[in-house]
Amino acid sequence: MDLYLPIANLSVNALVIIALGGVVGLLSGMFGVGGGFLTTPLLIFYGIPPTVAAASAASQVTGASVSGVFTHMARGTVDFRMGGVLIAGGVVGAGLGVLIFRMLQVIGQIDTVIGILYVLMLGGIGLLMAKESIQALVALKTGRKIQARKRRHHPLVAAMPMRWRFYRSGLYISPLAPLLLGMATGILTMLLGVGGGFILVPAMLYLLGMTTQSVVGTSLFQILFVTMATTMMHAMTTHAVDLVLALLLLIGSVTGAQLGTRISMTIRPEYLRILLAAIVLLVAARMALGLGFRPDEIYTVEIR
User: Fold this and answer.
1) What confidence tens digit (pLDDT) does each residue in 174-227 have?
2) CB within 10 Å: which end of the chain, N or C, has fewer?
3) Alpha helix positions (H), the chain
């Protein structure tokens, strides 16, 4: 079933796009990640222009985050004060991301930069995940317990001035730390169309020292509003948001997430983590291949 995407300016098979969203949703349900960091590469592999893929993926992440935020709010696991600071930083970062995005568009390098950032980001994350997963599997086989890391914020965070109390997170730190963290994720969201949770959650745990109970809910709270602001900025400045594409992805991701959640209950977490690391590294390798591969014909003319 072919469907025309007005912003991407091409026809796609709607069922294939829904299936791509379903794959991302499946991974989200299985591994407990937002899946946004895989949406953009998969769309690029299918032939969607990188700028449209990144902008539309951000709007899809917004829709997918709503139910998770309300669930965590009902459980009382959202630190609204911390979330507010992260959102403020994220909105500022998204604004800076707009300037960077437009500058790269003007010089004609935005597609290349998106590809390079994804290769570096997914490659680094995939290697770290693989290392931790292998350690967990070795410990599982040998019966040796991995020593738990002590919760403590980074010395650089401790050295920052003007401390606030974040009661829900159990922290007494400078708001400058979450503000800068929010700015970094805002820039990434604007450039890559990711929610940023795969970077935000580890940073909140290991840099800020937040309690595990409040990390996921606060992260989703920030992602919801920052991706919303990013989508609006993209729509008003880059004009790269394709709502038809985002809607198809959302239909697939909601369905896939339900199936993924059921599958995750039947597989050990250690095997899930190593599988996710392998998927991330494969996507990074495919992105790297696309950056280095030179086609036989650089320009083609197709007559329809």
Assistant:
1) 888 888 988 988 888 888 766 666 677 777 777 787 776 777 778 878 888 887
2) C
3) 14-31, 36-46, 50-75, 80-106, 110-142, 155-158, 176-192, 197-206, 212-233, 243-264, 269-292
* Residue boundaries of the structural domains of the chain: 2-292
d(CA 106, CA 115): 17
The strand pairing partners of 173, in sequence order, are 164
The one-character DSSP state at 235 is I
Q: What is the pTM of this model?
A: 0.72
Rounded to the nearest 10 degrees, the angle between the axes of helix 110-142 and helix 80-106 is 140
The answer to whether residues 32 and 169 touch, using CB atoms and an 8 Å cutoff, is no
Query: How many Å apart are CA 215 and CA 152, to the nearest integer?
Result: 14
Task: Name every residue whose Cβ is closer than 8 Å to that of residue 278 and which is 6 or more positions away in sequence.
Answer: 126, 130
* 181 against 60, higher pLDDT: 181
Residues 6+ apart with CB under 8 A from 10: 4, 47, 48
Q: Is 60 helix (H, G, I), strand (E, B) or coil?
A: helix
Report the relative pairing of strands 164-166 and 171-173 from DSSP bridges. Answer: antiparallel
C-alpha to C-alpha distance for 31 and 86, rounded to whole angstroms: 24
Q: Tell me the pLDDT of the chain averaged across its residues.
A: 77
Query: Do the Cβ atoms of 40 and 193 come closer than 8 Å?
Result: yes
Count CB neighbours of 158 within 10 A. Answer: 14
280: three-class secondary structure by DSSP: helix
Structure tokens at 133: 């997963």
């993926």: which residue's tokens?
57
